Structure prediction request, 103 residues.
Amino acid sequence: MRTTHYGRIRRFGVPTTIPTSGPYAGQTEIEYDNGNLWITDFDLTVRLNPRTRIHANVSNVFGTKPTRLPEPLVGPAATYAYAENGPVTSDGGSYSLGLEYTW
Prediction:
């Protein structure tokens, strides 16, 4: 098992329309934090016999997702969007299983 902490990751975005009200009013570039995430991964290998092993892997066990983008950076057809330029994606976790056999 491995747990990784990602500290502050400063990102900047440019809104397609400059907001005229709210917390981002008048800003032509908006800063947001895509970090402060804890990610836990789990790897397990079991030897069935001297020639055969099974590998199981779970990345991002708890399905941690990135920060949602500030509203002015979200496209007009979307309700919200996730920042995809950091250590994790909006997909959450992933899983894999493998079998190894040695001749």
About this structure: The chain has one domain: 2-101. Strands lie at 2-6, 10-13, 30-33, 37-49, 52-59, 94-101. The CA atoms of residues 66 and 88 lie 6 Å apart.
